[in-house]
Amino acid sequence: MKLGYKLIAILLPVFVAAIWGCEQDGTCGFGEQTDYVVFGSFYGYCIGEGCIDIYKIDQTHLFEDTLDMYPQSDDFYPGHFTTRWANEKFELVKDLKLFFPESLLNETEVIQGHPDAGDWGGIYFEIKRGNTHRFWLLDQRDEDMPADYNAFVDKINEKITLINQ
């Protein structure tokens, strides 16, 4: 019985530290920190600068893509993230990774819903976290996706609006 108490005494602080760390610095689990996220919106039947807005957040900076290519479902977005935004904008969006619904990692399909099918646009989201590197094309229309994904899409749209204010 003493071994059980010793094991609890050792593992409980590790577990508490892992949970506390997720709240404090964006790491989750046992210290697995997000390397970067790429996110943005795209509209197929559109003319002008706002049709495709793709951004990248790493640990310290926010970058904008200069290619403005329509995202495809067969590979990661091949962005040229050469435009670095001011630190003030980074501070506004750096917490986006905290809103990521972990259940997306269980999805086997890259496309969720019907992004841009009816000219309502779509969302591109990519995450690189350690050995995990995935991307999705998400629908902008609430009726086509689960509520927790809709909340995430709304958060991405909110962050894009903040960047462009």
Can you give a write-up of this model?
With 165 residues, the chain is α+β, with helices and mostly antiparallel strands. The protein is built from 3 helices and 7 strands. It has a 7-stranded mixed beta sheet. A hairpin with a 4-residue loop joins strand 2 and strand 3. Helix 2 packs antiparallel against helix 3 (147-163). The longest helix has 24 residues, at 2-25. The N and C termini lie far apart (61 Å).
How many H/I helical runs? 3
- The average pLDDT score comes to 85
State the low-pLDDT regions, or none: 7-31
Principal-axis shape: globular
From the alpha-carbon coordinates, what is the Rg to the nearest angstrom? 18 Å
User: How would you sum up the major sheet?
Assistant: 7 strands, mixed
The portion of residues forming beta strands comes to 15-25%
What is the β-strand count?
A: 7
The secondary-structure element order is: HEEEEHEEEH
Distance between the termini: 61 Å
Query: What percent of residues adopt helix (DSSP H or I)?
Result: 25-40%
Largest beta sheet: what is the strand line-up? Answer: 4-3-2-1-6-7-5
SSE-based structural type: alpha+beta
Topology (SSEs and partners):
Blueprint: H1 2-25, E1 36-42, E2 52-57, E3 62-65, E4 81-84, H2 87-93, E5 111-112, E6 122-129, E7 132-139, H3 147-163
Parallel strand pairs: 5-7
Antiparallel strand pairs: 1-2, 1-6, 2-3, 3-4, 6-7
